[in-house]
Structure formats: structure tokens, C-alpha cells
Amino acid sequence: MTAGTTLPHGTTAEHELVALQREHGRPLFAFLLRLCDGDRQRAEDLVQETLVRAWQHPEALRDNAFDSVRPWLLTVGRRLAIDARRARQARPPEVGDAILENARVSADHAERAAAALDVREAVKTLTPGHRDVLVLVYFQGASVAEAAETLGIPPGTVKSRAYYALRALRRVLPGYAADLR
Q1: Rounded to whole angstroms, how far apart are CA atoms 87 and 92?
Q2: What are 126-181's pLDDT values in tens digits?
Q3: Residue in 122, 114, 135 with CA at minimum distance from that of residue 168
Q4: How many alpha carbons fall within 13 Å on the CB side of residue 53?
Q5: Is the pLDDT of residue 2 over 50?
Q6: Is 37 left (phi over 0), alpha (psi -120 to 50) or beta?
Q7: What are phi and psi of 24, to 5 degrees?
């Protein structure tokens, strides 16, 4: 179908679009497929949008200045492809299901808060001597020597109290045993 072709009387726009698709659809699809980096679905969507634009502008199809409407279709398709690429670059990239399945899951804040409350309650069950050593060494990051100096006890006592405090916590918090090593 060329731009100057006259259609028989009574031909609908739908028949005109079918003829346009039949004559120019494959070259338009091949052109848009290259512009879409091989994404067939996106290229098909762009072909469809290009034909919708042709339907919206029938004057372009009947313009006698053109030997063929193909250059007009290719130009419209190219502009649509450029617009689609710009729109994709303007928003965050889409994430497929396969990527989400392999993504590392981090614990949410509610789980961490619940765990902190559990540990806090478990630490309250320790004797004051064990609790003081545990707080200094594990929660405040003091060295054995610093904890011994702060508490006024020998370093060996700090080590043994820390050991027994962790052992007691493992019994009280069985679900957290791996974290208490």
C-alpha cells in the first residue's frame, strides 16, 4: 500500500490497518527489534503503538507527497522506541522473579527488635557478676584486660565468667545458640 493508493469505496479504517500491517509490519518489527536490543515483546508493543499512531493520523497515510508510508512508519516507530528507552532509564530498573529468588534476605527490624528483647530478658536472669562481665566484654567491646581493671578482678576470672555467662544464655535462648558462639 503506497501513500497515494485509493481504497475502494466502503473500506473501513480497520481494513486499511490490516493492509498496512501486512505490507509494512515485518520490516517495521525487524527495525524496532534492533532498536530494542532484541526484546521481542517490547518491539511488538512498539509496532502496535506505531500502527495506532497511523490510525490516529490517516492524513499521513494518504499524503500524495510520499511514494510509500514506510519511512513515516519507521520514523514514528523510532521516535516511540527512543521515548520508551528514555522512560525506562528515568525509573529504577525492573527486577525479575529469578533475581528476587537469589537475593539475600536480611532480617527485618521487627525480628531484630524481638531478638534484642529476648536477649535482654535472658541477660537479666544471669548473676550480677556474670552480667557485668558480659555487658563489658560483649556489649561494650571492652578487652579482657579492660574488663578486669574496671571490675577489679583478675583476667582469668573475666574469662571464666564470660564463658559461664554465655553457656547460661545458650540454655535460656536455645533458638539463638548459633549466635552465641
Answers
A1: 10
A2: 999 999 998 899 888 899 999 999 999 999 999 999 999 989 888 888 776 555 55
A3: 122
A4: 17
A5: no
A6: left
A7: -120, -5
